[in-house]
UniProtKB/TrEMBL annotation, chain A:
<comment type="function">
    <text>Component of the proteasome, a multicatalytic proteinase complex which is characterized by its ability to cleave peptides with Arg, Phe, Tyr, Leu, and Glu adjacent to the leaving group at neutral or slightly basic pH. The proteasome has an ATP-dependent proteolytic activity.</text>
</comment>
<protein>
    <recommendedName>
        <fullName>Proteasome subunit beta</fullName>
    </recommendedName>
</protein>
<keyword id="KW-0647">Proteasome</keyword>
<dbReference type="GO" id="GO:0019774">
    <property type="term" value="C:proteasome core complex, beta-subunit complex"/>
</dbReference>
<comment type="subunit">
    <text>Component of the proteasome complex.</text>
</comment>
<dbReference type="InterPro" id="IPR023333">
    <property type="entry name" value="Proteasome_suB-type"/>
</dbReference>
<dbReference type="InterPro" id="IPR016050">
    <property type="entry name" value="Proteasome_bsu_CS"/>
</dbReference>
<comment type="subunit">
    <text>The 26S proteasome consists of a 20S proteasome core and two 19S regulatory subunits. The 20S proteasome core is composed of 28 subunits that are arranged in four stacked rings, resulting in a barrel-shaped structure. The two end rings are each formed by seven alpha subunits, and the two central rings are each formed by seven beta subunits. The catalytic chamber with the active sites is on the inside of the barrel.</text>
</comment>
<dbReference type="GO" id="GO:0051603">
    <property type="term" value="P:proteolysis involved in protein catabolic process"/>
</dbReference>
UniProtKB/TrEMBL annotation, chain B:
<dbReference type="GO" id="GO:0005634">
    <property type="term" value="C:nucleus"/>
</dbReference>
<dbReference type="InterPro" id="IPR001353">
    <property type="entry name" value="Proteasome_sua/b"/>
</dbReference>
<comment type="similarity">
    <text>Belongs to the peptidase T1A family.</text>
</comment>
<keyword id="KW-0963">Cytoplasm</keyword>
<keyword id="KW-0647">Proteasome</keyword>
<dbReference type="InterPro" id="IPR050115">
    <property type="entry name" value="Proteasome_alpha"/>
</dbReference>
<dbReference type="InterPro" id="IPR035144">
    <property type="entry name" value="Proteasome_alpha1"/>
</dbReference>
<protein>
    <recommendedName>
        <fullName>Proteasome subunit alpha type</fullName>
    </recommendedName>
</protein>
<dbReference type="InterPro" id="IPR000426">
    <property type="entry name" value="Proteasome_asu_N"/>
</dbReference>
Length: 255, 275
């Protein structure tokens, strides 16, 4: 008597349309004392194919809030549009922009509202709080969120987050005798960490590459110190007396 | 009067071919405080007189932002205005979402005109008791529209609605040909003069009761906003500089304004613009 080999036995299979797909890419945000940096690569892929070398994943919501979305691009893009619409209603009702922590809570309620057919998106919200501090909020697809100093999400998350834990939180690292680790890092250091994170992720992860877009949100009254040497820096805000928002773009390897 | 038997039902014409309910709704608009609108080649502006119930009360809001490129001033039932402006905001936002471009202003005004018309032809519904002056900017430049509860809307070079608006209209009719080439400051000055015509005796325009809405490039007293040229409302201290630029109310010689203290008990002279 031979025992049937399960692989060659016919059994029912359910075929169903899969509403989700993975579009690759990686996003990252780091909060400073009076600034916040939010970055994402610009490659959009599906499997081994590149859909486009330039599809933005990081979006300006207000002069002091930036949202990076990663996961399923169609859900990400639609989610950003819906968040922007809610911010517009807030502006109509209150004649001012929504504060950052309120946007974070709003994102939670919008995501949980789709608890049973979720937006397949990992969100990272970065920017400047009402009290002038730099902030990063990270979310899971159904709205669980937390304020942090730094977070990486997406395809190369497992490569980048440990690097950040070491460089931002100084984990598994001892300060020199008689000194202690700085509580906050300066902007130039943070930008170097961001760029190195992405160039390294590009080296070892096929879904990361092509281009890098970095948004820098500055608190009110913070000078442009540390930004003089950045080439290709573009200002998105018009007033000079409020919070300021800048964007810079860099190339990443295309292979 | 004869019209009493034909004026309760919206769906009944009078023998003269009128819908009295609609006409009564237009009366509600005439009861609201005045709003003035005018445009040039580059800008369209709204000016509104805010009313307050007493010294202890705040001043009623007369202007609403609909989108970056559209704003309105209201006269009549504020509650109806909020409902209609909410509808306009939804329309404008929906068009941006669907077609990836701002809603053309005439289409937006037509959408509320069509909505208001429904209430003039259905039994048991009353017409909206509010009129709008709508300013906006699209590819064909700045625009000014009037919307009325009858469901009619027209485009204008200059217009006013609300209490004693005829006085403002007279001023506008006299000067409208010069509006097209005005810069923003002169346009606002014309608008303020027109609005002043609607004031009762002893009243004056001040930072509390005057509201200015602007669409078009930044003026010399303004700070940059994003996106540039979008609809903004100036109120309170922001209006002071424009109020200062007005000619004195008494008849003034053509160039500078003479600080003449003598009040004018009779009707105002037409204000002469310098230059």
């Amino acid at each position: 008597m031979t025992i049937p080999d399960m692989d060659s036995v016919a059994h029912p299979q359910e075929r169903r349309f899969n509403p989700y797909t993975e579009n690759g890419g990686t996003i990252l945000a780091i909060a400073g004392a009076d600034f916040s940096v939010i970055a994402g690569d610009t490659r959009q892929s599906e499997g081994y194919s590149i859909q486009t070398r330039y599809a933005p994943k990081v979006f300006r919501l207000t002069d002091r809030a930036v949202l990076a979305v990663n996961g399923f691009a169609a859900d990400g893009n639609m989610f950003v549009k819906k968040v922007k619409q809610r911010l517009e209603w807030y502006r109509h009702a209150h004649a001012k922009d929504m504060p950052l922590r309120a946007i974070a809570r709003l994102i939670q309620t919008m995501l949980y509202g789709r608890r049973f057919f979720p937006y397949y998106v990992y969100n990272i919200l970065g920017g400047v709080e009402e009290d002038g501090t730099g902030a990063v909020y990270s979310f899971d697809p159904v709205g669980s969120y937390e304020r942090e100093a730094c977070r990486a999400a997406g395809a190369a998350q497992s490569l980048v987050q440990p690097f950040l834990d070491n460089q931002i939180y100084f984990k598994n690292q001892q300060a020199a005798q008689g000194t202690s680790h700085p509580a906050h890092l300066p902007l130039e250091t943070v930008l170097s960490i961001v760029i190195d994170s992405f160039t390294s992720a590009t080296e070892r992860h096929i879904e990361v590459g092509d281009g890098l877009e970095i948004f820098i949100a500055l608190a009110k009254g913070r000078t442009l110190q540390g930004m003089e040497s950045i080439r290709g820096l573009q200002e998105l805000t018009v007033a000079e007396d409020g919070e300021r928002l800048f964007v810079m773009r860099r190339d990443l390897k295309k292979d | 009067m004869f019209r009493n038997t034909y004026d309760s039902d919206n769906t009944v014409f009078s023998p003269q071919g009128r819908l009295h309910q609609v006409e009564y709704a237009l009366e509600a608009v005439k009861q609201g405080s005045a709003a003035v609108g005018l445009r040039s080649k580059t800008h369209a502006i709204l000016l509104a007189l805010k009313r307050s119930t007493g010294e202890l009360a705040s001043y009623q809001q007369k202007m609403f932002r609909i989108d970056d490129h559209v704003g309105i001033a209201i006269a009549g039932l504020t509650s109806d205005a909020r409902v209609l402006s909410n509808f306009m905001r939804q329309q404008a936002m929906g068009e941006r979402m669907m077609f990836n471009r701002p809603m053309p202003v005439n289409r937006l005004v037509s959408s509320i005109a069509d909505k208001a018309q429904v209430n003039t032809q259905e039994y048991g519904r009353r017409p909206y008791g509010v009129g709008f002056l709508v300013i906006g900017q699209d590819q064909s430049g700045p625009h000014l529209f009037e919307f009325s509860p009858s469901g009619n809307s027209y485009e204008y070079y200059a217009m006013s609605i609300g209490a004693r608006s005829q006085s403002a209209k007279t001023y506008l009719e006299k000067h409208y040909e010069s509006f097209a080439d005005c810069n923003l400051e002169d346009l606002i000055r014309h608008g303020l003069h027109a609005l002043r015509e609607t004031l009762q005796q002893d009243k004056e325009l001040n930072v509390n009761n005057t509201s200015v809405g602007i669409i078009g490039p930044m003026g010399q007293h303004e700070k940059p906003i994003s996106p540039p040229g979008s609809f903004r409302i100036l109120e309170g201290d922001n209006v002071e500089v424009y109020l200062q630029s007005m000619e004195k109310k008494e008849e003034a010689p053509a160039p500078a304004s003479v600080p003449d203290a003598a009040p004018a008990p009779t009707a105002d002279e037409d204000v002469q613009m310098s230059g």
